[in-house]
Amino acid sequence: MGKWKVLNSEYKYQSPFGNLRRDTCQMPDGKVIEDYYVNEYADWVNAIVLTEEDEVVLVGQYRHPGNDFYLEIPAGKVEEGESYEQAIRREVCEETGYVSEQGLIHLGEFMVNPATQTNKVITFLMLDAKRLYEQELDEAEVVEVKVFPFDSIREMILNKEITQLFTVTAYHLAKEFHPSSERPS
Fold it and tell me: Per the database record, which ranges form the Nudix hydrolase domain (predicted)?
């Protein structure tokens, strides 16, 4: 097993949201793949946000590709010059109005879909969040802020009220740091 060699690469489409690249690749056994399409995206950040009252802050919004409404944790892309922590603090504040003076807990970095995408998602836990600001949404965003007790999230996942994978993953990662979690001694 070995890495593929890129013989040729050309952009088919470029936009501020992402690029579509067509690669011609040679596998270690010599076989050539003429049309391997790669979606280039900026890295994404997200956070499970817990309020001082032990509630999870979620955003409800319509997602056109999914043709439905979804409950998700706040998320967004990293802007040029931002650290991951700066990006998620900005996104949480813009989407929800919530902020926290606490340090963020880094829960992990995960490839979104390494078969077709170049980006990763960096997941954080924000504790003791307070709503101090109004939303500052982009022109195409319609986001409803909702809060739920932390202990209700598991049931919401099981009942398919929360189906967005990054939200489910973040919840399960955050459970380790939740005060009610049982840690091995």
Answer: 40-170
pLDDT of 117 strictly over 80: yes
Domain that holds residue 24: 5-40
Q: Is residue 69 part of a domain?
A: yes
26, 99: one domain: no
14-40: per-residue pLDDT in tens?
998 899 999 999 999 999 999 999 999
How many structural domains are present in the chain? 2
β-sheet with 32-40: strand ranges across: 5-15, 18-26, 32-40
Q: Is the separation of the CB atoms in 45 and 78 below 8 Å?
A: yes
- pTM for the model: 0.90
Query: What 8-state DSSP symbol labels residue 173?
Result: H
- Whether the per-residue pLDDT at 184 is higher than 60: the answer is no
Strands 44-51 and 120-131: parallel
* C-alpha to C-alpha distance for 162 and 4, rounded to whole angstroms: 37
Classify residue 183: in a domain, yes or no. no
pLDDT score of 185 more than 90: no
Q: How far apart are CA 83 and CA 85, in angstroms?
A: 5
pLDDT of residue 181 exceeding 80:
no
Q: Which residue has the tokens 């900026």?
A: 42
